[in-house]
Amino acid sequence: MNIEKELARHTPSRPTLLTIGVFDGVHRGHLRLLGHLAARAREKGCLAGVVTFKTHPEKVLGRRDTLPWICTLQERVRLLKAAGADVVAPVTFTRGVAKLTARDFVLLLKENLNMCGLVLGPDFALGRGRQGSPDYLQQLGDELGFRVEVVKPARLDGEVISSSAIRQLLAEGHIYKVNEMLGRYFRLEGRVAPGDRRGRMLGFPTANLKVQPEQAMPRDGIYATIAHPGNRVLPSVTNVGVRPTFDGLQRLIETFIFDFSEDIYRRKLTIELVARLRDEMKFKSAGELKEQMAKDGEQARAILIKIPSSKFQNPNNFK
Question: Taking 80 as the threshold, does the pLDDT of residue 205 lie above it?
């Protein structure tokens, strides 16, 4: 099976203590589990390993028509390693994988990743028919020689931190709580695509960010943002929406980077959403829109100046 080949690409140098899941967003709940995993792996003299899915099981099994990603696979792998994972094995979830019994899946992990134990969340289930609950996996562990540990979920204001909760908050525009659950600013990344240059004509040249269609999107509106053109870190303001003043139909992500005039068309750009300023609005004229854009810029600067200046390349951008 393809999953066996994918796992075999990550054969470790010594035994691994593993966790398994999608880990979309690598939020604070994931970080709690990963922190426990890394600490226990060090105690045991094992590597800390993560098996993550390139394709979402909920979508493959037809339980969801669409399920947008909070972050790209590349970003997910980077965040998992930054959280302490020594080995990250992305595998493709297919209907064939879904038919594997929990025992068969565990045997693949032992054979290809030299698994010495599992660290899981309390609602985890593995294998055909969700047979592999933590209790069932511990029974397998008693037979096959590994231990299972369960880590309690992290909560924020009494609510369990989860990827589904973050997607819902994002769609509703609650970016502050999204960032609280993530433990960092929510990111959008892609290439800068040529636009119609309306922003330039209004005195606010913007970068039109083209993201992947599977990307989870925030509610339409204006956001105070941090832009990353190349290795730089600069304050900015971003519009997500259809530009109703110009009767737009296509949803765009347009970022105005303060005091920045370089041509970055077709280059990679990442933006971090810090705060939501307002809803997208239709104005009577381009002049009224221009006035509001200036106010948005001032409000964004006032918010971003409170972020430690060491995060930015040039703190004078806020003056």
Answer: yes
